[in-house]
Each structure stands twice: as structure tokens, then as C-alpha cells.
Write a structure and sequence with these properties.
There is one protein chain. The protein is built from 11 helices and 8 strands. It has about 280 residues and is α/β, with parallel strands linked by helices. Strand 2 and strand 3 (about 45) form a beta hairpin. Helix 7 (about 185-195) packs across helix 8 and helix 8 (about 210-225) runs parallel beside helix 10 (about 245-255). The structure holds zinc ion. Zinc ion binds near residues 30, 53 and 54.
Length: about 280
């Protein structure tokens, strides 16, 4: 096989009818002298020649603009994905903006709590494998929910997570039970059991009926048995939970969850008339 010599190639002018060009010396205000190629097709000028450096800069600017537009689109997609994940996780509206960064750890205890929460996130693979969780206890408004929500947000959207108050969860499961729906209470319980991470707030607030206690017991027992990490939020110390969920379950929670006290005073600012109605006239 012989190589095609240049002279064998068809001149471009015979491929595109009427294509002609000539070169001339030009001067760019920015880049100095250059050789411009002025191109005609069928007697009509289609390119006036251009400074190669200007052309290159123009192409780079265009590429940068396209990359920025794509980055904006990706960021918007990511924001929507996160917003949907937050919605699925039922993060209360008040807490959607909260994160580790906005947590004020102004006491050694809160510093310890923040550090524990961050370690839970960085050690998520281990927590998931062993079914290890956390037990935050203390007065309302001391930062338990803030940290629990921050943990969920840090793990989203890679995990299925849910934040729920115990009374809401029981209410939901009971509604499925009474309701003539496709879903049985067993399915409703499984919905809470099969989440990668469940945050159960207000554990121990109200004992509820025997039936409600059984449902709560079922969810917690199944999650512990199946090694699913749970973060419990309560105003009660683990030992004070015995009358609510029984000593056996309390023992198992203690065996699976790192307990963290929140003994500080509430960070919640008392609501004033100005907050609600604006300045007085
Ligand atoms: Zn130029």
C-alpha cells in the first residue's frame, strides 16, 4: 500500500463550489501583526480573517461561560435534590436552615455534643454496620434537635433518614391501622424500621395507651435487633425511661447508643409581641 501524496488530495476549492481565499497582513490592536485569511464562497465573503489570539480568547471565554452555566445548573439540581431529601426526611421548617456551622457550642458540654455528632457523621459506615446510635437527653431548647437535624443533613441525600416526634409516628401508624387503607400497621411499622437513620424526638414525653406503647416498642425493638442506627431525643435520662418503655429496651438502647447530656438552659429566645406583630405603632 502506498501513502497518498499531498498532490493526490483534492483541493478544497473543488469540494465546496466557489471556495476561494487570500491571505493578507493585518494588525491587531491587542496582539500585533498577524496573517489573516479572507475566505469567499461563490464570490461572497464568509470570513474576514481574524486575529488568532483574539479568536482563542473568545473561544476560552465562551467555554468558561458554558462551564459556569453548567455549574449553575448542577448547583440548582443539587439544591432541588437536597430540598426533596429534606422534605422526605420531614425536617421541621424551623430546622431546615440549621447545620453544624450554625450550632453555638458555648459550653464544654455542648462542645462535646457537637464533636460527638460530627464523629457520628464521619463514622457513619461503622454506625450503620453495627447499628450504633445516639441518645441525646436534656431540657427542650438546648440544641438536641439542632444537632440531630444537622446529622441528617450532613448524611443526606446518600441515606434514607427521617426525623419524627414519637407522638407523630404513633399517630401515623395508628391511622394506618384504623384506616381502610392498603397499608397495614405492620407495613407502617416497617416504614420506620427500614430507614437507614431514624431520629425519634420526644421519647418519653407521654406514655400513651398500652397499644401506643406496644407500637413504640415494636419500632425501637426492630431497629435495635436489625442494627439500624437511631438517634433518640428525650428530656429523660436513659434510666428514667424504664417506666415508659421497660428496662429490657432501656438496657438495649444503652448498649447501642452513646448517651450525651444537654443540661444547659434553653437557647430558644422567648417570643415577644414584636416578633409576631412587629413594632408597636
Ligand atoms: Zn488580537
Amino acid at each position: 500500500m502506498t501513502m497518498k501524496r499531498n498532490s493526490d488530495l483534492q483541493p478544497i476549492g473543488s469540494v465546496i463550489a466557489g471556495l476561494k481565499w487570500h491571505d493578507e497582513d493585518r494588525f491587531c490592536q491587542l496582539h500585533g501583526s498577524y496573517r489573516a485569511r479572507i475566505v469567499y464562497v461563490a464570490g461572497k465573503k464568509v470570513s474576514d480573517g481574524f486575529c488568532p489570539k483574539c479568536y482563542q480568547l473568545q473561544q476560552e471565554a465562551l467555554a468558561a461561560e458554558q462551564a459556569a452555566a453548567k455549574a449553575r445548573l448542577d448547583a440548582e439540581k443539587e439544591r432541588k435534590r437536597m430540598e426533596e431529601a429534606l422534605g422526605r426526611a420531614c425536617i421541621p421548617a424551623d430546622f431546615r436552615g440549621k447545620s453544624f456551622d450554625s450550632f453555638i457550642a458555648d459550653t464544654p458540654e455542648l462542645e462535646q455534643a457537637l464533636s460527638l455528632a460530627k464523629r457520628f457523621v464521619s463514622g457513619w459506615d461503622k454506625a450503620r454496620e453495627g447499628g450504633y446510635g445516639l441518645y441525646f437527653y436534656g431540657n427542650p431548647g438546648t440544641g438536641k434537635s439542632h444537632l440531630a437535624v444537622s446529622i441528617i443533613k450532613a448524611l443526606l441525600p446518600g441515606v434514607s433518614a427521617l426525623y419524627t416526634r414519637v407522638p407523630d409516628m404513633i399517630g401515623y401508624i395508628r391511622a394506618m391501622w384504623h384506616h381502610d387503607s392498603q397499608m397495614s400497621s405492620y407495613d407502617a411499622v416497617r416504614r420506620y424500621v427500614e430507614l437507614d437513620l431514624l431520629v425519634l424526638d420526644e421519647l418519653g414525653v407521654q406514655a400513651g395507651s398500652a397499644n401506643e406503647q406496644t407500637l413504640l416498642f415494636e419500632v425501637i425493638d426492630a431497629r435495635l435487633s436489625e442494627n439500624r442506627p437511631t438517634i433518640f431525643l428525650s428530656n429523660l435520662k436513659p434510666t428514667d425511661l424504664v417506666p415508659v418503655i421497660g428496662d429490657r429496651l432501656v438496657d438495649r438502647i444503652k448498649g447501642k447508643c452513646v448517651a450525651q447530656p444537654f443540661t444547659g438552659v434553653s437557647h430558644r429566645k422567648p417570643l415577644t409581641a414584636e416578633d409576631v406583630f412587629g413594632e408597636a405603632a
